[in-house]
């Protein structure tokens, strides 16, 4: 599975592209079952400080995780998705052959309370030497819709600069565009059906809204980097021990 010329041109113009039907329902359901079990394990062992960061504050009925880091390293089911040729071929069409996953996340976005993800640019976090040598593959494990908080993009922002980011008080890892900068840009929603993958360039400004709906919006975001690309100005420290070379 590879992108055609028109699809690649669309990605380069808008800074993002959705490819439908990459993974069938059986595979997304297996991934959900695995991360549900993992989340229960993690919840039992969280320290008070980690609870403040990982537990979703908007869900009052029960403890629900907001996210988990590096499933591509910790979970065999998710590593298989990251290594799947159907996905890797698409990634390599975008950033070139020979790639690794340097960081990944499961986003849970629970029904009736899953919180928003503020607008940001991945390349501010990673600071790659080659801005075009990094792409995020966002796998929809559930249908991601307008109602449950799908991704939203500033189209064409991949061709612009990486803006300074700020962090709210007490949240040093929650780097995001300043409100006054974001107000200068228009956001376009990008729904993705379950099993589809949304690809976005590291410079593309993106965010997601809260989930007031009765449906989950779970996803796995895999950050692929071409093997010859280095992080020269990372905003955060990344653990080299969890990097997985894919090809």
Protein described:
With 247 residues, this protein is of the alpha+beta class. The protein has a single domain, classed as Jelly Rolls (Sandwich), CATH 2.60.120. The protein is 28% helix and 22% strand. It is built from eight helices and 13 strands. Strands 1, 2, 3, 5, 10, 12 and 13 form a seven-stranded antiparallel sheet that branches. A four-stranded antiparallel sheet has the order 4-11-6-9, with no helix packed on it. It has a two-stranded antiparallel sheet with strand order 7-8. The longest helix is centred in the N-terminal third of the chain and has 21 residues.
Any idea of the CATH class? Answer: Mainly Beta
Secondary-structure arrangement, i.e. CATH architecture:
Sandwich
CATH fold topology: Jelly Rolls
Structural class: alpha+beta
Q: Estimate percent helicity.
A: 25-40%
List the total number of helices: 8
Global mean pLDDT: 95
Shape: globular
**Total E-strand runs:** 13
In angstroms, what is the radius of gyration?
17 Å
Give the N-to-C terminal Cα separation: 16 Å
- Binned strand content: 15-25%
List the helices and strands and how they pair.
Blueprint (H helix, E strand, L loop, with lengths): L4 H10 L1 E4 L5 H21 L2 H7 L12 E3 L1 H4 L1 H8 L1 H11 L3 E9 L9 E4 L1 H5 L7 E7 L10 E3 L11 E2 L9 E2 L1 H4 L5 E2 L7 E5 L4 E3 L10 E8 L17 E2 L2
Briefly say what this structure is.
This protein has 247 residues and is an alpha+beta fold. The chain is built from eight helices and 13 strands.
Defining key terms:
globular, 247 residues, Jelly Rolls
């Amino acid at each position: 599975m590879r992108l055609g010329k028109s699809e690649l041109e669309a990605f380069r113009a808008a800074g993002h592209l959705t490819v439908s039907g990459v993974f069938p329902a059986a595979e997304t359901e297996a991934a959900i079952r695995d991360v549900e079990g993992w989340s229960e394990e993690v919840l039992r062992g969280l320290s008070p400080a980690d609870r403040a960061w990982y537990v979703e504050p908007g869900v009052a009925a029960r403890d629900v995780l907001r996210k988990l880091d590096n499933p591509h390293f910790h979970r065999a089911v998710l590593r298989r998705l990251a290594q799947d040729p159907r996905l890797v071929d698409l990634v390599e069409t975008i950033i070139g052959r020979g790639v690794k996953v340097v960081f990944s996340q499961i986003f849970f976005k629970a029904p009736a309370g899953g919180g928003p993800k503020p607008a940001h640019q991945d390349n501010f976090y990673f600071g790659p030497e080659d801005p075009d040598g990094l792409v995020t593959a966002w796998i929809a494990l559930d249908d991601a819709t307008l109602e449950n908080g799908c991704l939203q993009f500033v189209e064409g922002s991949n061709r612009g600069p990486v803006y300074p980011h700020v962090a709210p008080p007490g949240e040093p890892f929650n780097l995001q565009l300043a409100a006054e900068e974001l107000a200068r840009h228009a956001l376009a929603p990008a729904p993705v059906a379950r099993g589809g993958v949304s690809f976005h360039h590291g410079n593309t400004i993106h965010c997601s809204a809260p989930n007031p709906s009765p449906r989950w919006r779970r996803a796995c975001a895999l950050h692929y980097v071409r093997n010859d690309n280095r992080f020269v100005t990372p905003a955060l420290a990344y653990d080299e021990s969890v990097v997985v070379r894919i090809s």
